[in-house]
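Pilot study result, target chain (120 residues):
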Amino acid sequence: MSEEYIVCGWDKDIGSFTRPMSEEEIAQVHADRAAAAVPVVPPSVPMLNARLALIAAGHMAAVKTFVDAMPGVDGEQARAYLEYAQNVRRDHWLVEGIRQVLDLTPADIDTLFITSASID
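Predicted structure:
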């Protein structure tokens, strides 16, 4: 048993710790801490932050080349989205297209979104 989690808490009425924690309670504390440490992928981020994260990762030039080469209405919409959207959604079709063209994994895109969310 870990010394860090030996007791449940201080009981102010009796002036001492209440009882040792059970193995299940200790396991739950560890699980709760591990879950809190996992970064959450935001569903959307500010487009400026996304662009800054792409620049930092060295992907922005390839993204612009891809979007500029897209023909027709899809290309016009992609360029408008990239240039004028205030936010970018993780589930947007353009994000998936960029992921495929850059040969990134979904986890790579998640990391870019997490990075984007951390930019102030």
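One observation from the pilot: The two ends are 41 Å apart (CA to CA). A full batch analysis is planned for the follow-on phase.
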